Structure formats: structure tokens, C-alpha cells
Amino acid sequence: MNTANSSDKKSEKDYSKYFTQVITPPSLKEAKKRGKSEIQYHDDFGIPEEFRGMGEGRKFYIRTYGCQMNEHDTEVMAGIFLALGYEPTDNTEDANVILLNTCAIRENAENKVFGELGHLKSLKMEKPDLLLGVCGCMSQEESVVNKILKTYHHVDMIFGTHNIHRLPHILNEAYMSKEMVVEVWSKEGDVIENLPKERKGQIKAWVNIMYGCDKFCTYCIVPYTRGKERSRRPEEIIQEVRHLAAQGYKEITLLGQNVNAYGKDFEDIQYGLGDLMDEIRKIDIPRVRFTTSHPRDFDDHLIEVLAKGGNLMDHIHLPVQSGSTDILKIMARKYTREQYLELVRKIKAAIPNVSLTTDIIVGYPNETEEQFEETLSLYREVGYETAYTFIYSPREGTPAAKMEDNVPMEVKKERLQRLNNLVNELSAEAMKKYEGQIVEVLVDGESKNNPDVLAGYTTKNKLVNFKGPKSAIGNIVKVKINEAKTWSLNGEMVEENEPAEVK
Ligand code: SAH
Ligand code: SF4
Ligand code: F3S
Questions:
Q1: Peptide bond between residue 20 and the one before it cis (omega within 30 degrees of 0)
Q2: Which of 52, 109, 178, 242 gives the lowest tally of CB atoms within 10 Å of its CB?
């Protein structure tokens, strides 16, 4: 067990005092009471003797919604299923257990899940022994759990984001019980190491560096669904990255909702994301990325380390959300337009070739036309290469959901369209610059649409489709770009000895 600000090793039964069938509703007041000193580290995960072989002759299927955090949680749950003796299947009809790993970030994300639950009802009627579970961020919401309890009786299990390691117990209970099994902990101060993982690919891997978020942007549900910020110990992360390098992985992405807050919760050491990246940079793995950055905590030391280059990629995703200082203020982003632009200036000065991308929300409550135009002008000024853009979606329990809003939906939609036009224009421009250049591509595999073509990503995370031998899969190769499209590049692989300086 790691010892930093942790208490005594917890045995399985000590968990029971945190166990609850009662779901704590998302409450800003409660959530903000989170202490700094309660983080407990556990590394004693194991499959209890009595559950071994539970999965023999049974198959599992997990559908994942939402962000990379969820994708990685799915890999952990798949690891647990395999350790229990289950086999994977990618067909719901063959499955004996189906899990929906859900996302709560916007209303349409939730609607997709409710739609899928509706579809799965007939399968469950045909196969009464099928276990159907809902996990992930939606399970942390009281209103969702109530809705499932009330309307979706064919669901067998609901468990939260803090309960993933409890999967063997939850499955066991679901097999034994006729009632719906609900296990959603409101406790949120744990870091659990040593969980099994069945990674989806052999080329790229996710590595959690921290969990949760304490930023409480006024629109966002994540601090409620993922709990408080807590960092994994550097030695655990470094060991995991070394292990991945030894297994032949070519790229890792360090994950957290706010990776720039990494280490702030350590009480015994002063250690941040810059320090971590500086150590990981020395590990023999060709590509290192991280996501997502919050501009507020992006410090000079990190910029300095990123500027060293090497395996640290020249792409930074830096969500801005809005170009208006007034809107940023009511979003509680805790930076102004000017401070954001100053950060961008510093990053560009240190890493001249850097590619910046962002997330933007339009139609925040009472956003004026002028405030929206400030977002457009900031977009141009920064010169982002691309962006994820969203219409604001009220999330129950967040402060913004209580704000009055005088912006009609048609106006929000029209603003999104105008912003997307700009995003497309700048993306096409950024892509055009690659024509005639030679880039380094990490080859993922065959292109989705054409098996005769290979696909991979540049250091700046641009998708490249190109002709080349299948033996190139899993390697970093040089590709000459012949044609730029808005979202991807087409090219041809070039000989190893041709000079390639351009990234
Ligand atoms: N932790 C990351 C964001 C995670 S959520 C960060 O702070 O950068 C991904 C994106 O979803 C956010 O950047 C934001 O643009 C968008 N988003 C979050 N809550 C939203 C909401 N209620 N409505 C619309 N978009 C939202
Ligand atoms: Fe949500 Fe990101 Fe803000 Fe955290 S920092 S509250 S995850 S938008
Ligand atoms: Fe969605 Fe949860 Fe990720 S709300 S975006 S899956 S942290």
C-alpha cells in the first residue's frame, strides 16, 4: 500500500461502512465539503476465492459512452470479467452480461442510454438469465437511478464510478437476488491500484494519473459523478508506463479531468504534472500525450518541460469554453480572456510549432450576441487547429441549471452553426499546410473505409490515410501528404532514409 496521507490498510469489510444503497443526490453544498486529508490508497485488489470461475461458460459485453476516462474504466471492467472466467463478445445477442458504461455530460448523452435500455428490453424478455447493468457517470445521479428503478425494471444492476472494483460482488449479488442491485457509493476519496486491465489495443494505451475534479465549473456534472480530485502516486504511474513500454506500446495518454491539478492533493511531496512529464519523457516510449488540461493550473514548469520535446507531443488540448470574460466568470472557469491568451502566448513562445485544440460551449444562459462574437474572435486569434463544440445543456444539481436563460434554442443552434463554420474553415486551412510535407505517422491499422489503405496519426494528432505495407502497422513511419481534407490527410509512405523534419 502507498502511504501518502493514507490511513491504515483497509480490509474488505472496512469498506462496508461506506457501502450504501441510498444514493446521495448531486449537491454542490455537500460536494464542496470534501476534505483534503481523506484519500486512501488501496493496492490489495484480488478476486475472492468464492467468485473464481463465476464466468465459466458465460460471455460479457460492455458498451462505452463518453470520454477516455470511461473507455479506460471499461478496460478495467473487462480485466475483472476475464479474471472471473468470462469471455468477451462483441454481440449483445451472445452475451450473458451486458453493461452500459454511461456518460452524463449532456442531455443527449443520457438520452442515448435510455434509448438503448429500451432496445435491450426485448432481448432481456427472450433471455431472462441475461444480466443487464448500468454503470458509469449516470449511475451517480439520483434522478437517473430513480428513473431506472421506476421505469426500467429489466435492469439488474446499477453501480457507480467508485464501485468498479466491486464488480465481482455486484455480479454475485445480481445472480443471487431477484431485486435490482444498486451499489452507488457517495464516498469518493479512494485510489485503487492493481486492478486488472484488458487494454483494447496493443499500440496505444490510456494511463490514469488522477481521478475526479474539484473545479466545479457551474455547468458541469463531472465533479459530482467522479468525486474529488485525487492523484495516483508518481511511482505507480511511472511503473505502469515502464511496463507499457516494455510490452511494446508506442503511445500513452495520461488521463484526468483536470490533469494540471495533478499532485495538488499530495501532502508529503511537492510534485506536479511538469515533474511527472519530466520523468516520463525519459522512458523509452515513442509518444506521450495528456488530456485534459485546465488553463487555470497550466504552469510555467509544465511549459518548460513540454518544450523539451522528444516523446512529448506537440499538441495541447486546452479547453477555453468561451471567449468572453463575463461568461467565463459565471462559468466559474477562474480565468479571463486575457489570461487565457497570455497562456497561449507563453505556450507558443516555448513550443513554436504547437498545435492547439479546444472545447467550446455556446448558448450559455443569457449569453449575448457580443459575448458570442468574443468567442469567435478568440478562436481566430488563437488559431486553433480544431475544436469540440457544444450547445449548453443544463445538468440537474449544477448551479447553472438554476440560472434563468433568455437565449432561445434557435439562437443557440444558429450560434453553434456559425462557430462550426469557423472551426471548419480554420481546420481546412491548418490541414492544407501539410500538402507536400513529410510527416511521422504512428500506424494504427487498416483504414475504416478501405482495408487497402492504412490509417494512423501524426504527432499533432491528425488522421492520415495512406498506402503502405501491412507490416507498417504498429510502427512510426514517414508519409508524404498529397491531399488535405478538412478532417484528414491522404498520403503515401516514403522510404525510411528520406529526410523528414516536418511534423
Ligand atoms: N475536464 C475537461 C472537460 C470534460 S467535459 C475540461 O475542463 O476541460 C468535455 C467538454 O464537455 C467540456 O470541455 C465542455 O466543453 C463540455 N461540457 C461540459 N458540461 C457541459 C454542459 N453542461 N453542456 C454542454 N457542454 C458541456
Ligand atoms: Fe467539468 Fe472540466 Fe470544469 Fe472539471 S474542469 S468541472 S470536468 S469542465
Ligand atoms: Fe461523461 Fe463522465 Fe466522462 S460525464 S465525459 S463519462 S467523466
A1: no
A2: 178
- Residue closest via CA to ligand 1's atom 3 equals 257
28 CB near ligand 2 (under 6 Å): no
**Candidate of 213, 359, 367, 407 to mutate for ligand 1, largest count of ligand atoms within 8 Å of Cβ:** 359
Q: How far is the CA of 310 from the centre of ligand 2 (A)?
A: 29
Range list for CATH 2.40.50.140 in the chain: 438-493
481, 439 in Cβ contact below 8 A?
Answer: yes
Establish how many alpha carbons lie within 13 A of residue 155's alpha carbon, considering only the half-sphere containing its beta carbon: 25
Q: Which atom of ligand 2 is nearest to the CA of 321?
A: 8
- Determine the Cα angle at 245 with ends 244 and 248, to 5°: 90
Q: Compute the distance from residue 256 Cα to the ligand 3 centre, in Å.
A: 11
pTM comes to 0.91
Q: Which one of 225, 390, 419 would you pick to mutate in the ligand 1 pocket, going by the greatest count of ligand atoms within 8 A of its CB?
A: 390
Please determine, looking at this structure, whether the domain spanning 438-493 carries the CATH number 2.40.50.140. yes
Cα(162) to ligand 3 centroid in Å equals 13
Q: In this structure, which amino acid lies at residue 331? A: M
C-alpha span between 161 and 144 (Å, rounded): 14
Q: Which of 312-321, 463-472, 491-500 has the lowest mean pLDDT?
A: 491-500
Q: What percent of the chain has pLDDT over 70?
A: 91
Cβ proximity of 262 and 231 under 8 Å? yes
- Taken in order 200, 205, 207, 208, the sign of the CA dihedral is negative
Distance 399 CA to ligand 2 centre (A): 13
Express each pLDDT in 434-483 by its tens digit. 999 999 999 999 998 888 899 999 999 999 999 999 999 999 999 999 99
Ligand 1, atom nearest to 359 Cα: 15
Which of 63, 100, 103, 398 to mutate to test ligand 3, by most ligand atoms within 8 A of the CB atom? 103
Residues of CATH 3.80.30.20 domain(s) within the chain?
196-431
- What is the number of the ligand closest to the CA of 218? 2
All CATH 3.40.50.12160 domain ranges in the chain, comma separated: 12-183
**Domain covering 12-183 assigned CATH 3.90.226.10 in the classification:** no
Residue 132, C-alpha cell as written in the block: 443487464
CATH architecture of the domain with range 196-431: Alpha-Beta Horseshoe (3.80)
User: Taking Cα atoms as reference points, which of 259, 265, 364, 382 lies closest to residue 321?
Assistant: 364
Contacts of 395 (CB under 8 A, 6+ apart): 104, 105, 106, 107, 219, 220, 221, 401
CA of residue 170 to ligand 1 center, whole Å: 30
